[in-house]
Amino acid sequence: MSVFSRGFRGRRADSDTHLPPGQYLTEDFPVLTAGPTPRVDTDTWTFTLTTETGRSQSWTWKDFLALPQEHPHTDIHCVTRWSKLATDWTGVALDTFLDKVDTAADYALAYCYGDYTTNLPLEDLRHGQAWIVHEFDSHPLPPEHGGPARLLVPHLYLWKSAKWIRGVRLLDHDEPGFWEQAGYHDYGDPWREQRYWGD
């Protein structure tokens, strides 16, 4: 497993730019990953939503593209201290997948091609706060940034926006994911600098 850089430094934000504490502004889109980049063919890609009772529904790439598409315009913040403002994405709101699901779950675990996982409270995936995105700046999402599709939860640090998304399991208990088990904060709010356990 490779280790990503904690030392990336962009330019310090202008005084009139409002960033979370400890963040630097970048015009680039740094690539940070903890292992090899999966190459996922859209012919075989699926997204599966599984409830806490084990009931599941899957969407192929064609099914996914046929769902209502949204265009989030949002800032993103990486735990390695860079922030990128006013980014543009295209994808499907998690609400679209969740609205017809009968669940009493409080938590979700996103899992990915390449075996990465991350945990989130289910409420953070609802109410227009999260998407499965497949385009960035009107172009197909490249593999190094999580293509063909990734989770986007922009109000949390970017490690919660799992690359190469494959599915979401709904849970009645919290189950820490890859980085959370390695000492990253369980929630990851950039405005409260929740980078690591104890923050």
Name the descriptors.
199 residues; mainly beta; 3 helices; 6-stranded mixed sheet; disordered N terminus; Sulfite Oxidase, Chain A, domain 2; globular
Describe what this molecule looks like in 3D.
- Residues 1-24 are annotated as: Disordered.
- Residues 35-179 form the Oxidoreductase molybdopterin-binding domain.
- This is Sulfite oxidase-like oxidoreductase.
- It holds the Pfam family Oxidored_molyb.
- It comes from Salinactinospora qingdaonensis.
- The chain is mainly beta.
- It has a single domain (24-30, 45-51, 63-192), classed as Oxidoreductase, molybdopterin-binding domain (Sulfite Oxidase, Chain A, domain 2, Alpha-Beta Complex).
- Helix content is 8%, strand content 29%.
- The protein contains three helices and eleven strands, in the order E-E-E-H-E-E-H-E-E-E-E-E-E-H.
- The protein has helices at residues 61-66, 94-98, 178-181, and strands at residues 24-25, 46-50, 56-60, 73-77, 82-93, 107-112, 117-121, 131-136, 139-140, 150-152, 165-171.
- The strands form two sheets. Strands 1, 4, 5, 8, 9 and 10 form a six-stranded mixed sheet that branches.
- Strand 8 and strand 9 (139-140) form a beta hairpin.
- The radius of gyration is 16 Å and the shape is globular.
- Residues 1-16 have low confidence and may be disordered.
